[in-house]
Every structure is written in C-alpha cells, then in structure tokens.
C-alpha cells in the first residue's frame, strides 16, 4: 500500500538498508516521495557516530533489552545504503522500548521483542515528526519469557501503571488496615506487600510497608499518594 513514512529498526543495518533501498527506488519509479526513518536503541547506537564520521565506527555498547539490534559497528555495505537512502536516524531509551512492548502487546495482541518495537517507541516518545500515512515495521518476537515478565513490569512502571510506595508506620495494631483502606479509597489495587521491622533506619517501635500497587496512570498514582497522606501517613515513592 501507499505510505508516506516507514519506520524500521536499525542494528547492523541489513533490514533497514534493504527496506530503505526498495522503498526509495519504488517511490521514485512512481514519481512519489517517501520518508524512511531508522531507529536504534540508545544504549547500542552505532549509526549516529558513524554517519557523522562518514564511515563505520565501533562504539562501546551499554547493556540493553534490545539485544537483537545491539551491534557495535555497522557493516560497510548497509552503511553505504543507509547513508544514501535513510532520511533520519533516531534513538530510543530502555524505558521507551519497554513501554512500547507493553502497548503493542496490550493493543495489538502481539509479542514483539524490544528491537522490533523501537518504531512504536519512537512514535510514543514523540521523537519523530510524521505526516500522512505511516508504516511501522515490527520485527522479531524472540524474547525469553523471564525477560518478558520483567519488561512487562518495567513497562507498566514506566507508564505509571505499576507504582511502588513505601510507608513508615508505628508498630501497633490497625496500621496495615489503615494503609489498605487509604489505597482502596483511591480505587487502586495492592498486588504485593513487604512488611519490614528492621533496617532502613527504623526505630524499635516502627515498621515499613513497601507496597506494589496497580494504577491507571500518573494522575491515578498521584491520587493514591494523596489518599495515603490524607490518612495521616507519610508515603514516599520507591524504585521497583
């Protein structure tokens, strides 16, 4: 079908080079213009520096969930084609990829690995300017189930749909109920509770609750936080 923009993942460059070359030549033959945007994981983005240098340059990569497109140095042939036919190269973060994977899974019922979801990630993060019809190539579903579990949780947290809150309480009966009621009053669901009686600077008469809570987004997360404060508690956001 006719499209105005194509978003494709970029690692070593084989897929992006092939897509860009065919799309550009086909569009030119029909007297049309098409924009091709390639997306890399920020932690393994070898192309921006290589394009700037005018030749393939190796980088030191950081750990990334997008292992399928984690390539330290572009190949010469795909580099030449991408330099000629790709209009723009953008990068996305780990959080942005995780959010995109969850959105694609939830909305399209597709399990796509991080490297294959970078196009969706770029759109959700407003990193590309698009007009007209856009095609996003979802490439690859090779993901370990345990990694997928972590990515889902991380993606939900990045979307403020999974929140971790710590609450310091006096060690006396009724405090756990009070906390649960405050969360329920905000319409949220507690999925996990960790009850700590020692460490973290706790006094002998204090306990700390670490709550993992399902929320509907940032506004709802803030409502839960305010509900806990209104109950006379002292909540604080914590990392997963």
Would you spell out the secondary-structure blueprint of this structure?
Elements: E1 5-9, H1 14-29, E2 35-41, H2 47-53, H3 76-85, E3 88-92, H4 94-108, H5 118-124, E4 134-136, H6 145-158, E5 162-170, H7 175-185, E6 189-196, E7 206-214, H8 218-230, E8 234-237
Parallel strand pairs: 1-2, 1-4, 2-3
Antiparallel strand pairs: 5-7, 5-8, 6-7
Verbal overview:
The protein has 240 residues and is α/β, with parallel strands linked by helices. The protein has 2 domains: 5-157, Rossmann fold (3-Layer(aba) Sandwich); 160-237, ACT domain (Alpha-Beta Plaits). Helices cover 39% and strands 21% of the residues. The protein contains 8 helices and 8 strands, in the order E-H-E-H-H-E-H-H-E-H-E-H-E-E-H-E. The strands form 2 sheets. The protein has a 4-stranded parallel β-sheet, sandwiched between helices. Strands 6-7-5-8 form a 4-stranded antiparallel β-sheet. Helix 1 links the parallel strand 1 and strand 2. Helix 1 (14-29) runs parallel beside helix 3 (76-85), helix 4 (94-108) packs across helix 5 (118-124) and helix 7 (175-185) packs antiparallel against helix 8 (218-230). The longest helix has 16 residues, at 14-29. It is elongated. The mean pLDDT is 92.
């Amino acid at each position: 079908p006719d499209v105005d923009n194509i978003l494709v993942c970029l690692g070593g460059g084989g897929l992006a080079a092939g897509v860009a070359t065919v799309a550009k030549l086909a569009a030119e033959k029909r007297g049309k213009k098409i924009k091709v945007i390639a997306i890399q994981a920020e932690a393994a983005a070898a192309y921006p520096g290589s394009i700037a240098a005018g030749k393939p340059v190796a980088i030191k990569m950081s750990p990334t969930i997008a292992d399928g497109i984690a390539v330290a140095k572009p190949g010469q042939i795909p580099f030449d084609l991408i330099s000629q036919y790709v209009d723009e190269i953008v990068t996305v973060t780990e959080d942005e990829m995780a959010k995109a994977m969850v959105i694609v899974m939830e909305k399209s019922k597709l399990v796509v690995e991080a490297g294959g979801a970078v196009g969706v990630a770029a759109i959700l993060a407003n990193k590309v300017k698009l007009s007209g019809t856009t095609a996003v190539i979802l490439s690859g579903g090779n993901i370990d189930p345990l990694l997928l579990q972590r990515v889902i949780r991380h993606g939900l947290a990045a979307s403020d749909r999974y929140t971790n809150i710590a609450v310091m309480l006096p060690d006396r009966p009724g405090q756990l109920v009070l906390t649960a009621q405050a969360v329920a009053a905000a319409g949220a669901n507690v999925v996990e509770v960790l009850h700590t009686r020692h460490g973290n600077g706790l006094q002998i008469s204090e306990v700390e609750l670490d709550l993992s809570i399902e929320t509907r987004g940032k506004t709802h997360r803030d409502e839960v936080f305010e509900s806990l404060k209104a109950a006379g508690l002292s909540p604080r956001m914590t990392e997963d």
